[in-house]
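Reopening closed ticket. The problem is back. First fold of the pair:
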Amino acid sequence: MMSRIGGVITALLGLAILWYGAKLALAGGSPFYVIMALGLIVSGALLIARRQAGLWIYALTLAVTFIWTLYEVGFDKWQWIPRGALVIFLGLLLSLSFVTNSLSDRPQKPWEPSLKNGVFALRAVVAVIAVLGVVAWFYDPLSITGKLEKTASADAATDPSGIAYPADDWTAYGGTNLGQRYSALKDVNIENIKGLKVAWEHHTGDLRKEDQDSKEYTFEATPIKVNGALYFCTPHNIIQSLEPETGKVRWSFDPMMKRDPFYQHQTCRGVSWNDSTAYTGPADSTPDQQAAATAAVAECPRRILASTVDARLFALNADTGELCKTFGTDGYVDLMEGMVDTNRATYQQTSAPMVTKDLIILGSAIADNYYENNPSGVIRAFDVRTGKVVWKFDASKPNDTAPLAPGEHYEPNSVVAWTQFAADETLGLAYIPFGNASPDQVGIARTPEQEAFVDALAALDLKTGQLKWKFQTSHHDLWDRDNPSQPVLLNLPKDGVDTPAIIIPTKIGNLWVLDRTNGKPILPISEVPVSTDTDIAGEKISPTQPMSSLNFTPAPLREADMWGATPFDQMACRTTYNQYRYDGNPWTPPTTTGSLVWPGNIGVFNWGSVAIDPVNKWLIGTPQYLAYLYKLYPRQAGDLNKRVFGGDNSGGESKPGNENLGGPYAVSIQHFRSALNAPCNAPAWGVRVGVDLKTGKTAWKYRNGTVAGQQFAGIKFPIPFEMGMLAHGGTLTTAGGVAFTAAALDDSIRGYDMQTGEVLWKMALPAGGQATPMTYRGKDGKQYIVVAAGGHGSLGTTPGDSVIAYTLD
């Protein structure tokens, strides 16, 4: 009886696999699942007849499947799951005595090898696979095991640019405007890190409201510590000041941000600081200008500068939290002044303003693909005390940096720089990482002026805004490959000479390493030929794309790289892979029939950037790997405002697509996932890496993060398998030899050895830690590590409102 039940289950499994396998084969994919299915069907039929030959056929099918699995993916245990887990489990059940004893021709000696002994054959195959599975469990073909070598004294306190490395304080988003995310503190080190405990936890009280806020509601803030206090912003741009040793609130200020669920991103990554106590005014100022500056300093000698998602810039007294009324108009600057094409929810501010001695330098964030015509992406420098515009840099008018005259406006649709900036005040340069001009996936309407700055890193004169040099990281971007990361500044050897360098991480995985005085490459660059075929009339695709010799761009995606929790969703992913255009490189152009884009627009690197040890010349990063599906939907020429996706939809990840109203194409951008909500590309989806920047070589690489808490088919996975998760956030490095990150999707913060990549300490967070940790020394002499934990709406991590500090007992 049990053999017949087993036979029915086997035959039904075979029929189901045949259905999906035939669809895959007809789509041009692997025919192997058809072969597997036929083996299962024949095996099932024989078992229904209670013949042990059914076990022979099952053993043969299982053995061939395992050989095919090794051929496709080698000893990657996580890729064995969709190919063999189900059939191995069923094979194990069929080999048990309660099934084999019901066979009409069961062998007298089940463990005796014989051509007629199907029981032995199946048990032997299952046993061999089980042994190899144990071997594979302790082997990871993805890992690189090595060690970064120390090359300098870890006691260095000052960067070659003259900027002191952060220690007691953390005065800017990236530690300093060099963007290194490095602290010279070493109280917490590889020897004692396991003693880190929660020192305090603060709840901001700022939580998402379903009907008023964007789905992509995220707490991505990195606090600063200066002036004896911690300062940070919440997703609604509420600024809070805490006592660094206890987390006690000193003051809180709410700018009353206008809520709107149509914002593409509702977040605030940080605030900035300026100390004007010693300011005496510019030497060439008029008496009126001098009087205004003097009054501003008297009102707010130390100030916190922040911007809002609803497009305002404001200044607060750092000691009291009160508005600096002499700044702008009653404390605020309206960032929409001088803008045109100001449609609903198209212009936002999400990154911390960059503040130098005298200036606030602020970019523009424009919603991707909501509209064809958008506000300007202008870069503006404001007087840090009065809020007056000192200069502008509009990529569509790069030579005109003077403030707008009355009646003038900024150039609409100019290229955007939305992320964090960096500066070298000794060289007098600000570094602006530009992105794309919306619509990201269609370039037919771009002007030559726009094309010149798409995905460019621009070095601007701090005093005047004049362009000094620029470097483009891609040509004719059609993939939303904007430069998303804060540039990182340090000194590196070039031809034996200590050279001021800049590193620009990109979504495609390139790490561009340039001389920051002139934009010339320090590490080699090559041009890669790509296909220029497209079905978009008027699109002029670049025949080549640049690649850096230092990159974490993934290998071409194969059908064999498709993944799933079961063979069924894996086959569905394989079928989709074959139905979409994919050129075998990261530059498959978007099409009206559908294109597979790998890596996708979330990037290998994003706003979390990378962290470095500028003393030892190490880079620590968390590359991430997800594939996306792009599809363009043409509109009728006479009705460019007709919605393609229906409903009142201005775009955003929570919607089925981005309308790009007024343009000839709407665009759908979907994460390439299976029906069970698992990524279709195989894990790892995120890794951590350690790079020696003197040589450009990766010393170590490991999967980063577990799948604990991830939802598959609506069910949270409970087991913390270290498969390597997306890490949307940044990393902190320290002179203690320890790096910290909390950005992986498993709601945990980790500390690991920077030399080897080994995880030394891990602690659960109350919510997703999609932010960047920072560190400082309190008045009590202790080193604290602090991270915001509030989750990420679009990534589905646990929501919350925590700021948590850790210190040694």
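Second fold of the pair, where the issue appears:
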Amino acid sequence: MRGSGARPDRSHACDGVAAAVVDHRGTVLRWTGAAKDLTGFTAEDVCGRPVQELVADPTDELHRSTEMPESGQVRLRHRSGDSIDVAFRTSAVEGCAEFLVLAAPAHHVSDHEQGAALLRALSSQDGIAIALHDTDLATVQTNAVLGTLDGRQVRPGTRLCDVLCAEDAESLEAVLRQVLETGVPVIRRNQEVSWRHDPARQHALSLSAFRLENARGRPTGVVALYIDNTDHMRARRHLDLAGKVAEQVGGYLDVVRTAQDLADVLVPAFGDLVAVDLSQCVFDGDEPPKQLGDGGVCLCNAAHAPATAVWPTGIRHGDPVPYVVDHPINLQTGEAVTHDRADVVALIGNPQLVEYLVPEDAHSVMVAPLYARGLTLGAISVWRTGRSDPFTEDEADLMTQIAWTGALAIDNARRYTREHRAAVALQQRLLPPSTTDTPAAETAALYLPAGGGAEIRGDWYDAIALPSLRLALVSGDVIGHGMSATATMGRLRTAIQTLADLELEPDEMLTRIADQVQRLMAEAPPDHHDVVGATCLYAVYDPVTRRCTIASAGHPPPVLVRPDGTAEAVGICPGPPLSIGDMPYETTTIDIEPGSVLALCTDGVVERRDHDIDQGLRRLTDALAASCRPDRALDETGRAVLADLAEQAPRDDATLLLARTRAVPAEDTARWEIPADSAAVSEAREWTTRQLTKWGLDDLHFTTELIVSELVTNAMRYGRAPAELRLIRHDVLVCEVTDSSSSQPRLRRARTTDEGGRGLFLVAQLGARWGCRHGQNRKTIWSEQLIECPP
């Protein structure tokens, strides 16, 4: 029953419950003090009068009522003239015709009802426990019943240490005691706890606690709201683990490293022991067979974690995995499967094989095929041991996702391994032999391809034997990477070898090669112009003069190690890289003692992340000074130097070319200045005959006299003074005539009636080979004859 009217003035409302006794006609018989506080009327004011007179604006329904209503709401008059809404409840007094009426302000009753409804709603939720603790923190009342906390009834008087492990209970009681003492509530404090009866399992609780006070504001206890967030925590951990796998696995394009990263990220977050087994083909970068587990496919352990764990004998890094007929990796669906220890033992069958493969205290295993791009690369096995929880269905779904992510990363590494191996093989096939042995020097070269996910960069080296016992040393580095860089390297190396036959000076050689690079840039697509180019160092060593002429196109300088062990970088004036045309190159000429080592390298040797190229050049110089010894093989020296300087996973190719110089003894060379008179030809023949006799080369008298005659005649007819004849004896006999003319001799076939023009033709026929090289304001025509070794 509710009347209408103005909003009541709650200043007259009391906080207690008013009580009165009325008879069956509604006459007030007794009136309590709380009733006086509620209405303002005393017992003398209302006793003996109908209770309806206290009702403000009574309805017709109330006037017609002949029975006392059981409950309802009504608006009562207050002595002050105001009115107040109350909720009432009546109850018959046993043994007489009287009724007890209880009334309270309606808004108080509404608050209590809503609070009770809220408490019932919270108490009925799974995973939510409400506990009322007294000042000693003992449980006074709680809804924690079977299935909400630890699976047992929590009774009044129970303390947290009776439910939780001692350490967890002590931590939570400290929080509740702080709330009790300070009155400051705690909201959503997260803590992982373990139940006393199952300490191995972790549960996540969210605690909110508030202090309870009496009417005088004194603390009477603490009410605590415990929310079990275990499922939420597990889902969060699963999400974090999946994100961690995506973030940390696949950062390196190395199959074994990727497999190890996958194993490491799963321990201990997902399992206690993890093993990753891959098909042997995957390690080599090849595709695995379409079907695994047929007995003909070899799986090998690629990674396991943790490394400190005690693994069975059959799980060893790099070792083949014994074949099991019903092994779960036979599945081609890519889904994870779970087995307990009994299932595993039954699948394997052989007790000795069980001991060989299954960890001693493992109780369950989850196996997921590493399935990517239609290929099953292998499998990942996760073991749980000791008192850890068995695997759940949602964890199997998570493992399927993790295995798929890991398989993609491993397959990316596999594909990179295949392409990198092909690029390295092509690069190495395009490079010359790593060692050479010529009259000028013995050489040894080492090539270290980029690693750690970096592509081949097109570094190269070369040692080209030139006429007159000279040797050209080349070191180059192509801009760009991958197959295109390797192809460019092959073209540039071919061009240098072709131009070497022209016996160009180093600066002229680089100018010609720069023109070739310009043509390559013109042929490249417009968006690839900036990745076509190279740096190069070209050096020519003459063992007769013991001098080396060097020119550089943006390349690191060579390092010279003298026979006494001192070493220094050769001071050169480097020109621009080969991709920049129309720029001159300068040559530097140095004297080199026999037995010295000249080292040419690419920037992969001297340039690293932690220092610049100048620091790297000093490190190379020091390493060469320490490693180069006359009694040590050059290739051994090179390996030692690269091992000392190269990074673990170099981001750039590195080549090192070492040349230990030799010299032609002075007694094996002879020079004769050609006089400017008509008798010079006959005098040259006589001088040549005497020199050959001195060397014991009498069998070459006739052919050498003819060659010398034609070369000297050609110099006198077409050249300019001064002119010189030089003979060099080694495994070949070299005849050289140098004059001050730059005209290019031509080999032509003379007609029958011609009186001349047969000189160079005869030289070409009599010698093993001949040629012409140009220097500054001079040219040299040479011829070589093989010297037969005595029996």
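Update: turned out to be a display glitch only; the data is intact. The radius of gyration is 50 Å. The CA atoms of residues 518 and 579 lie 6 Å apart. Please close again.
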